[in-house]
């Protein structure tokens, strides 16, 4: 089941992100839950929160700020279901485009985004800190968008 999250879900959301390691800070999660221009969407399995997405409403566009899925639930369609709901939300807002950025090494996510009609718009060189412990190189961010 997919539903909108609110401050009542804060503890569960923080616990999920701690395991999903999507790179979203606890402060960003709390701020998103309190922002009327942002939707935080949760994916539930039975009574457990197993995935979330954050989408922000901009003047003419929407931005997917994060998707996080518990590692044990990855590859089960949770991310795809969340992305579908993010697209539907942006369409309800009458946004012209949906924007996102992703690590160039996150091939699983890039394939998902391409499957949903996103295309590459550009790159931000050295945007992300190293993903692995001991890695010295910063990673590029791939900028992608989809017309709505």
N-end to C-end Cα span: 24 Å
Content-based structural category: alpha+beta
What's the number of domains?
A: 1
**Mean pLDDT figure:** 92
* Multimeric organization: single chain
Largest sheet: 7 strands, mixed
CATH topology: Aminopeptidase
H/E element string? EHHEEEHEHEE
Report the CATH architecture: 3-Layer(aba) Sandwich
Could you state the CATH homologous superfamily?
A: Gcn5-related N-acetyltransferase (GNAT)
Q: What is the number of E strands?
A: 7
Tell me the β content: 35-45%
Helix tally equals 4
Major beta sheet, strand line-up: 1-2-3-4-5-7-6
CATH classification, class level: Alpha Beta
Helix amount, in percent?
A: 25-40%
Low-confidence stretches: none
Question: What shape does the CA trace take?
Answer: globular
Integer-rounded radius of gyration:
15 Å
What do these coordinates show?
30% of the residues lie in helices and 38% in strands. It has helices spanning 10-20, 26-34, 78-92, 107-115; strands at 2-4, 38-45, 48-57, 61-69, 97-103, 119-128, 139-147. A seven-stranded mixed sheet has the order 1-2-3-4-5-7-6, sandwiched between helices. It is globular. The model has no long low-confidence stretch (mean pLDDT 92).
């Amino acid at each position: 089941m997919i539903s909108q999250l609110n401050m009542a879900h804060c503890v569960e959301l923080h616990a999920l992100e701690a395991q999903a390691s999507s790179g979203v800070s606890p402060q960003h999660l709390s701020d998103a839950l309190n922002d009327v221009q942002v939707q935080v969407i949760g994916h539930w399995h039975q009574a457990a929160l197993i995935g979330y997405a954050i989408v922000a409403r901009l003047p003419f566009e929407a931005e997917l700020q994060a998707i996080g899925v518990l590692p044990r639930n990855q590859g089960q369609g949770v991310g795809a279901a969340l992305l579908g709901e993010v697209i539907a939300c942006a369409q309800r807002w009458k946004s012209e485009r949906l924007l996102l950025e992703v690590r160039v090494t996150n091939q699983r996510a890039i394939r998902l985004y391409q499957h949903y009609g996103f295309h590459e718009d550009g790159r931000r060189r050295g945007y992300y800190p190293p993903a692995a412990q001991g890695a010295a190189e910063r990673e590029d961010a791939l900028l992608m968008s989809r017309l709505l």
